[in-house]
Amino acid sequence: MFKNHRITLLAVIILSLFSTVTYGASDYIDKSQITNGVIKINNNNNNVGAVRVSKGNISYDYILKGDETIPLQLGDGEYTILALESVGNNKFKQIAKETVTLKAKDPNKVYLQSIQMVNWNTDMNAIKKAKELTKNVKNDQEKVEIIYNYIVTNISYDKDKAKRVNSNYIPKIDETLKVQTGICYDYSSLFAAMTRSIGIPTKLVMGYKNDMDEYHAWNQVYLEDTQEWVNIDTTYDAGKRKSNPSIPMIKDIQDYKIEKEY
């Protein structure tokens, strides 16, 4: 329930590339964490305004505001990384390009990492809360249910924010925890950060739900106990729980249309 993500916008404006100046890719593209399924973009002097990550005919685009960790979530194989500098008027020029090869021992490891839209570290209050809530709990599904119930119970949907948020918005999980309100992007980022921090692979997913018109964000969680990915929608359930306290946590995947996942 928010404006279509900035990625759609960039997918258009990136076609406006009108010049190419390529420097050493290593100046901008750090591959040291590629075994975890991520790369880091070093935004030297804020030169890099955007990054495009492509594998085959699928591309993901990111607007940058500093150094960022970017996922390689499309499976093993070759990825093309373009670092782009903004030259104004929604136009970019290429300043670095590199092809990297991912050979992941664990394909789910990427969904444990801190990345641009699921940004977390152990000093954050939300991460401390996740550790506190799940202390001494050993079953993954029970841990997920505890964090799910905490978010659904304590975070309220912010309709005004949904109307005014811009397409380049990135959630801050501690801010969501503090104000206890947010849009679906805030809910799903907070949930993913909290579950990732306790070792449970979690995707932040974007697309549409069959009974909603608005662009939406939710999560998919990998349960080690049953070795399956399940759909969880904390935003939807936070709104529905008052009228239906027994609403199930795990949602039918057929009710959702996935466009992007991180």
Write the layout of secondary structure elements.
Elements: H1 6-13, E1 29-30, E2 38-41, E3 50-55, E4 58-63, E5 68-71, E6 77-88, E7 91-102, H2 125-133, H3 140-154, E8 156-157, H4 159-164, H5 173-179, E9 181-182, H6 184-197, E10 202-209, E11 216-223, E12 228-232, H7 234-240, E13 250-251, E14 256-261
Helix pairs in contact: 2-6, 3-6, 3-7, 5-6
Q: Report strand %.
A: 25-35%
Mean pLDDT: 90
CATH architecture of the largest domain: Roll
CATH class of the largest domain: Alpha Beta
What does this structure look like?
The protein has 262 residues and is of the alpha+beta class. It folds into 2 domains: 6-112, Immunoglobulin-like (Sandwich); 125-261, C8orf32 fold. Helices cover 25% and strands 30% of the residues. The chain contains 7 helices and 14 strands. It has helices spanning 6-13, 125-133, 140-154, 159-164, 173-179, 184-197, 234-240, and strands at residues 29-30, 38-41, 50-55, 58-63, 68-71, 77-88, 91-102, 156-157, 181-182, 202-209, 216-223, 228-232, 250-251, 256-261. The protein has a 5-stranded antiparallel beta sheet with strand order 13-12-11-10-14. Strands 4-3-6-7 form a 4-stranded antiparallel beta sheet. Strand 10 and strand 11 (216-223) form a beta hairpin. Helix 2 crosses helix 6 (184-197) and helix 3 (140-154) packs antiparallel against helix 6. The radius of gyration is 18 Å and the shape is globular.
